[in-house]
Here is the input.
Amino acid sequence: MKYIDAEIPSSTASQVLVKVAAAGVNFIDIYQRQGLPGYNLNPPYTPGLEGSGVIEEIGKDITEFKKGQKVAWVPQLGSYSQYHVVEESKLIAVPDAIELDIAAAVMLQGITAHYLSHSTFPIKPGDTALIHAAAGGTGRLLAQLVLHRGGQVIATTSTDEKSQLIKEIGVENVIRYDKEDFADEVLKLTDGKGVDVVYDGVGNKTFDKSLDCVKQRGMMVLYGAASGAVPPFELQRLNARGSLFITRPTIAHHVSIKAEYQERCATLFSLIAENKLAVRIGKKYSLSDAADSHDDLFGGGTTGKLLLIP
Here is the structure.
């Protein structure tokens, strides 16, 4: 990536021009930069799918927003910038009670945590979920939402520091997968039955053993590939393991209906305002240090949300 000067863009009739306050850094940005199958874009392009800021200019057809209003968005490519044009359909009004950096921090990861726990596998009281990388931005939010819905969480992580961050939000069972066989530990904790659902954003390194953790007729939710893509596998394994379900969801299909998009954001903002959802910003970078943020995230040593501040 290169940090360059560019002209401030102009909005079309259906767009607004936003002065960006913060842009979120996500693994999908790295997947796109690497050109992984299903994520490849035609360079050159400006990365970044989420952010927040204040409206500077509105298109003539805009009716729901006004100049000077706090807004956030996802997904709108090009968010790593000082000024960004955003389609009205992608915009969400940010309540006064929510700071713009917090809003940027929950657009992609918060909505992902919401649809995973409310739509992909709707957590019911008494359900048990295994959440990998639970100290990360998405994992920590997801764990809180599972607990909020009355579920139980078994979390995995790799350091003492990360274990403490997970326990701070009320998770009692934390497995160090750098020291223990997490599948063995999960089966011990569940009396050999396994969990109702595995939420796996790690991918290649955890996928096979994750299947061993799912109880009969449970669900495996693969929502990311931080350690690399999962290779093709024999579907008969799902039968052999107990008629398991498997799915690979993505955020675009869970915000395409405007009312649903707005409802997810309203729920997240409300929980944050009521101090029922803790958002941890792990580190803030200047826009010119975007490459460093990718290196840090890919290296696996980060916790919480990474933000770029123009």
